[in-house]
């Protein structure tokens, strides 16, 4: 068996990996019978400093979609994209790359043909070894050989965009074919319509996690991102066959006669290799194939079971009188060979009915669905990408095929044409040959494992894969449709030293190689002795070919080392301890791996590196360099590194995870992320807890990420000048003139610094033009402050110092060009330069903490509250980040704690500002509509709410709060307006679900914006630092446009008794919220609280809250709340409160005091109040805060939470629990320091954490 594409292991028919929506079956023949030697094209560094993008016109919206696909998965995605494009009115052609190369010959070659196109989209997958698919090789070679300067001139008027499909388990080879194409197109100076995107099969959302944003970015370029598909596009037409038209006669003929290169062969033998009763049966089947290549492949076309065919037949919308024996003709819409066959033959041999129902298929069903609830459920399931989403629940650990989906959503009936256009064609499965043509001429052996599994929902029921079930039923004499072709392994010359690793059924390939070597020796020829490392599970159960291998070793054909996983031995240990491995490579030997895919090949590779290091006493990095050279191509020499990876085996991966973790931690981050389009890991939500490298999980594009990096760099220069000015003026005050002194005391540039940093927070500003404006504004302030610094140096006689970093932005105003400059100063550039991941990570933590401080300080500034200590620290810290001291770990930690101190001052300042609306007081907030026109306001900024209430006073427009604006109801002066009527929705992450149901305009005042849907953008207004392309902006608190829109929209009616948005399935349902328990309110009842402690009515306090993340199913904080003792008091704040509001403690009271046990203190910045409450209690009990019966359980998401955490560390508050996972920018060594120094704890199992916290009471 062999994993041909790095994205979908086709050798085992695991339905969890079939992704082929909206395909056009029968259009393309299968690959040519003979595959040329694999082409490992040289990788070009993806330095995209001159990348160009173009804004297209709908007038030239002609699409050419080219695909390179080995097993059909990529072809299916290409067809999906083409179908979606056609549904939006785009003139679209779809071709495999090889066919385009053939047709381009008459036009003078590929480049000349491409020059006549308009918008070209290339979709390509990658072999495990980084190879191009068969039908992409010729296209790649054509691009390789062209003259770059000439091609650049010819291709200047077209755009090309690349989408790759890969599997990150394959590490260095992840999407290598797509990345090579992208790099070559860059060399040819081709303009991109949209940035390249990469699908990752290993991610929780699969390839669609990359594919859907890629498609949306294309549709957005043409202004129709949300165009609904009114009818399901079809790629084929089905008609009743003409009378007398021949139909297929047998299942074998129906299969191989229509697939190029297939033939009917006989089964000679079929036997069980493992011990009887062993659940993981390994079988051998011998096929009379005729000639076959050593270590080649056999493709087997497995049919759908008759029971499955019968199920789908009952679900289809068919003309009256149609039966399974009816003969039909299927004709591709875009041309191609028609197919005439019985309906039974088509459903049996040509449609992958057993494949996983993809998101795109569910979206297609929603188009034809008749039941409104089913339609909405289908769309929600198709679109939800958050952790624990509905689609994941249907598919993870479950069998959910296309037929299952059709049965589940019974109102969505498909015609035969629609079925054939939306369900992928049935692909053959690949099996590796396990015999030698010298030993078994004309009869090829295959070794396969009988894949059997149970589902999470029904462990008692067992399932087989499609091909497995078919293969297991074969017996001697049966006919089977097959195709024989070469495999990816380069067979070495017989005398070449070989390191061979065969794991599981991978031993079959090695058996064929050993048979061949043995036969050559029998012919008197010289061969090397193959060093074979064979790993299996249990020697008593699955040690297959044991006697044969012993004979090979006795004959000198191999030297065998074995390991039995279930017995506690790992083959990686054998490899790491072997000195022979290093010796073989020193003697120009080759490496051959056959076995499970996923992380296993990389882990085995790590053990090879360890072997080289151990045998020769090399540093791991030196050994890694030698290994990299071994894996590289040498002109005129066959590849020395061969990997044929099958499907993943999770249990094997779990046992090898220690090796995997070691490999990851030893690899510098600069290497891990090298070649990425971006690197952003400033929030908790960052991709796979490592970093966003192609597009932000938040929706941030690489362009926006680069612009934000450049803005931060510009702000550091501004901070440096302001710090120098204040330092110099303070030391030379007597020499400062009154004019200079007045200029020094101006704080405009400080305020602009705050706003600029605020704009780079997570979920604040997605607008390239807006960020460009901040860059230009910062640049102008730098110019002014630089001049002031120079003047100050002159009057004080001080030598002028140069800013440590130069201005990269110059006079540039084009966001695209500025973004290219931003790539030079991002965090990845720092990792390359400093070479100390711990220091870089902690210095980035300082930058993120500064962003949080800036956000809080900007809120305070709007409320008329400032503290120069905040301004001075921000400037000092910004200057520190570009000084040599930033590479000193101790000094970085000292500055982090100082940032925490500054944030405490900032939160106190903001507290004073918000108190201008009156001291918070308890209030019950309704969660229901009030009749009348409506405006929704979200975010944190109370000033924007106050201005909105003022301007809508007397208009009849009601104001609703959203997200972290909920605490506004606790301020008496805001409640006095009378039209602050209630709260709408829950936390920020459900905007896309809740906002469409709000019958009025929406105002976003601060962070927590998610990219709005296209049809909502016109009524979501941006305010302050917030920005998104295409959304209107509230300027200088002028709400006139918002008010006019509210008056024109329906608002809520008398009939509206509750909100219509779907309820959060993971949250707590509450009809009201209790707010207003701020610092002053709690301190006013301090004597009562202290008395309740004495009575035993309160045993422990918990602060639970913070900034919440995107995952809907994140239940840790809810579970903690639900399992606290009834004598607990919980203080909550921030948007994390929505995980626990609605719980029983919200309505319970402390004894008979009437004081709720769940007290909402306000926004995340109101952590200040929680700290002051703790300090007050500590003073009363004459103890330290750490001695109080108090636990802090904080949810972090973005940079404000980082600032809060630094404040807690500054105050030396120990035992803070932070979750749900560690920040990606904090490396393990740095995290260990924080754990040891501050007793910082990461959240774990909720029940266990509660037990530990409650136990602290005793």
From TrEMBL:
Its cofactor is FMN; FAD. GO terms for cellular component: cytoplasm. GO terms for biological process: response to hydrogen peroxide. Keywords: Cytoplasm, FAD, Flavoprotein, FMN, Iron, Iron-sulfur, Metal-binding, NADP, Oxidoreductase. Residues 260-495 form the FAD-binding FR-type domain. It comes from the Eukaryota. InterPro entries: CysJ-like_FAD-binding (IPR003097), FAD-bd_FR_type (IPR017927), Flavdoxin-like (IPR001094), Flavodoxin/NO_synth (IPR008254), Flavoprot_Pyr_Nucl_cyt_Rdtase (IPR001709), Flavoprotein-like_sf (IPR029039), FNR_nucleotide-bd (IPR039261), HCP/CODH (IPR004137). Residues 63-219 form the Flavodoxin-like domain. GO terms for molecular function: FMN binding; hydroxylamine reductase activity; iron-sulfur cluster binding; metal ion binding; peroxidase activity. PANTHER family: HYDROXYLAMINE REDUCTASE. This is Hybrid cluster protein. It comes from Gonapodya prolifera (strain JEL478).
């Amino acid at each position: 068996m062999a994993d041909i594409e790095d994205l979908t292991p086709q050798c085992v028919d695991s339905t969890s990996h079939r992704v082929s929506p909206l395909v056009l079956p029968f259009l393309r023949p299968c690959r040519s019978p003979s595959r040329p030697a694999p082409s490992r094209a040289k990788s070009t560094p993806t330095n995209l400093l001159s990348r160009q993008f173009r804004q297209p016109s709908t007038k030239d919206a002609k699409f050419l979609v080219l695909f390179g696909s080995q097993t059909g998965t990529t072809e299916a995605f290409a067809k999906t994209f083409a179908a979606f494009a056609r549904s939006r009115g785009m003139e679209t052609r779809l071709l495999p790359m090889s066919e385009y190369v053939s047709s381009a010959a008459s036009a003078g070659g590929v480049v000349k043909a491409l020059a006549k196109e308009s918008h070209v989209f290339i979709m390509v997958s990658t072999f495990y070894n980084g190879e191009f698919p068969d039908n992409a090789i010729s296209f790649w070679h054509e691009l390789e050989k062209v003259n770059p300067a000439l091609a650049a001139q010819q291709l200047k008027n077209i755009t090309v965009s690349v989408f790759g499909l890969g599997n990150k388990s394959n590490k260095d080879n992840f999407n290598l074919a797509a990345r090579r194409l992208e790099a070559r197109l860059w060399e040819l100076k081709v303009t991109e319509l949209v940035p390249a995107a990469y699908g990752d099969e290993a991610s929780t959302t699969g390839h669609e996690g990359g594919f859907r944003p890629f498609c949306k970015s294309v549709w957005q370029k043409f202004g129709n991102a949300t165009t609904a598909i009114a009818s399901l596009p079809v790629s084929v037409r089905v008609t009743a066959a003409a009378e007398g038209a021949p139909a297929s006669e047998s299942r074998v003929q129906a299969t191989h006669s229509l697939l190029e290169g297939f033939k009917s062969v006989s089964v000679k033998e079929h036997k069980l290799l493992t011990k009887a009763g062993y659940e993981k049966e390994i079988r051998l089947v011998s096929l009379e194939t005729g000639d076959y290549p050593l270590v080649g492949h056999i493709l087997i076309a497995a049919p759908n079971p008759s029971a499955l065919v019968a199920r789908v037949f009952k679900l289809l919308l068919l003309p009256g009188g149609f039966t399974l024996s009816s003969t039909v003709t299927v004709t591709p819409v875009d041309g191609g060979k028609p197919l005439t066959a019985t309906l039974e033959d088509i459903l049996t041999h040509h449609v992958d009915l057993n494949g996983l129902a993809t998101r795109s298929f569910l979206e297609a069903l929603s188009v034809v669905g008749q039941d409104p609830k089913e339609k909405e459920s289908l769309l929600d399931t198709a679109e939800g990408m958050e952790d624990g989403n509905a689609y994941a629940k249907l598919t993870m650990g479950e069998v959910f095929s296309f037929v299952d989906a059709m049965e589940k959503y019974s109102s969505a009936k498909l015609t035969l044409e629609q079925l054939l256009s939306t369900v992928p064609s049935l692909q053959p499965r690949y099996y590796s040959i396990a015999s030698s043509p010298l030993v078994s001429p004309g009869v090829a052996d295959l070794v396969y494992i009988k894949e059997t599994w149970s589902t999470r929902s029904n462990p008692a029921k067992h399932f087989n894969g499609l091909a497995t079930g078919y293969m297991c039923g074969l017996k001697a004499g049966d006919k089977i449709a097959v195709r024989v072709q070469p495999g990816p392994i380069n067979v070495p010359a017989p005398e070449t030293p070989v390191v061979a690793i065969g794991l599981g059924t991978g031993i079959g390939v090695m058996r064929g190689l050993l048979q061949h070597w043995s036969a050559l020796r029998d012919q008197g020829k010289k061969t090397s002795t193959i060093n074979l490392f064979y790993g299996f599970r249990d020697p008593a159960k699955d040690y297959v070919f044991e006697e044969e291998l012993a004979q090979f070793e006795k004959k000198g054909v191999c030297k065998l080392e074995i390991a039995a996983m279930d017995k506690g031995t790992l083959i990686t240990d054998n490899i790491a301890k072997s000195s022979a491995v290093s010796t073989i490579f020193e003697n120009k030997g080759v490496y051959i791996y056959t076995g499970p895919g996923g992380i296993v090949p990389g882990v085995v590779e790590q053990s090879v590196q360890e072997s080289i290091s151990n045998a020769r006493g090399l540093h791991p990095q030196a050994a890694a360099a030698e290994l990299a050279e071994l894996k590289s191509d040498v002109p005129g020499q066959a590849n020395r590194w061969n990997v044929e990876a099958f499907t993943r085996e999770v249990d094997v991966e779990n046992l090898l995870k220690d090796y995997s973790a070691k490999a990851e931690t030893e690899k510098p981050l600069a290497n891990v992320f090298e070649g990425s389009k971006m690197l952003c890991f400033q929030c908790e939500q960052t991709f796979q807890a490592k970093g966003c490298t192609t597009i932000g999980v938040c929706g941030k594009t690489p362009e926006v990420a680069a612009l934000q990096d450049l803005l931060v760099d510009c702000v550091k220069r501004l901070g440096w000048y302001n710090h120098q000015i204040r330092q110099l003026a303070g030391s030379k005050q007597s020499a400062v003139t009154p004019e200079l002194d007045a200029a020094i005391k101006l704080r405009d540039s400080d305020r602009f610094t705050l706003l600029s940093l605020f704009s780079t927070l997570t979920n604040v500003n997605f607008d390239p033009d807006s960020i460009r404006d901040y860059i230009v504004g910062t640049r102008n302030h730098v110019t002014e402050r630089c001049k002031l610094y120079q003047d100050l140096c002159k009057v004080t006689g001080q030598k002028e110092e140069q800013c440590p970093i130069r201005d990269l932005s110059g006079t540039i105003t084009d966001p695209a060009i500025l973004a290219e400059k931003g790539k030079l100063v991002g965090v990845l550039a720092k990792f390359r330069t400093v070479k100390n991941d711990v220091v870089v990570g902690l210095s980035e933590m300082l930058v993120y903490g500064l962003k949080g401080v800036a956000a809080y300080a900007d809120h305070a500034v709007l409320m008329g509250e400032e503290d120069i200590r905040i301004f001075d620290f921000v400037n000092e810290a910004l200057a520190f980040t570009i000084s040599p001291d930033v590479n000193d770990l101790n000094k970085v930690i000292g500055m982090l704690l100082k940032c925490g101190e500054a944030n405490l001052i900032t939160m106190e300042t903001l507290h004073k500002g918000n108190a201008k609306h009156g001291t918070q007081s308890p209030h019950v907030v309704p969660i229901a509509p009030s009749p009348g026109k409506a405006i929704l306001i979200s975010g944190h900024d109370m000033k924007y709410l106050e201005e909105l209430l003022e301007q809508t006073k007397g208009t009849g427009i009601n104001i609703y709060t959203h997200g972290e604006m909920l605490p506004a109801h606790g301020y008496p002066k805001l409640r006095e307006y009378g039209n602050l009527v209630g709260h709408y929705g829950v936390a920020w992450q459900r905007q896309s679900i809740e906002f469409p149901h709000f019958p009025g305009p929406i105002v976003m005042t601060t962070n927590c914006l998610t990219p709005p849907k296209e049809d909502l953008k016109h009524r979501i207004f941006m305010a302050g630092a917030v920005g998104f392309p295409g959304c209107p902006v509230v300027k200088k608190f002028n709400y006139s446009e918002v008010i006019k829109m509210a008056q024109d929209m329906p608002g809520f009616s008398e009939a509206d008794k509750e909100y219509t948005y779907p309820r959060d399935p993971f949250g707590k349902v509450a009809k009201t919220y209790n707010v207003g328990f701020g610092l002053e309110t709690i301190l006013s009842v301090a004597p009562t609280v202290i008395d309740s402690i004495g009575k035993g009515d309160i045993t422990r306090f918990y602060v639970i809250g913070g900034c919440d993340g995107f995952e809907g199913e994140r239940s840790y904080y809810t579970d903690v709340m639900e399992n606290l003792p009834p004598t607990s008091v919980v203080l909550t704040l921030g948007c994390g409160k929505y995980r626990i509001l609605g719980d029983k403690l919200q309505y319970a009271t402390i004894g008979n005091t009437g004081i709720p046990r769940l007290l909402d203190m306000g926004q995340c910045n109101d952590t200040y109040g929680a700290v002051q409450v703790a300090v007050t209690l500590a003073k009363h009990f004459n103890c330290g805060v750490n001695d109080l019966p108090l636990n802090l359980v904080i949810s972090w998401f973005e940079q404000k939470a980082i600032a809060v955490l630094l404040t807690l560390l500054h105050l030396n508050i120990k035992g803070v629990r932070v979750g749900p996972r560690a920040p990606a920018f904090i490396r393990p060594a740095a995290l260990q320091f924080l754990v040891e120094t501050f007793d910082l704890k990461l959240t774990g199992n909720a029940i266990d954490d509660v037990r530990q916290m409650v136990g602290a009471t005793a």
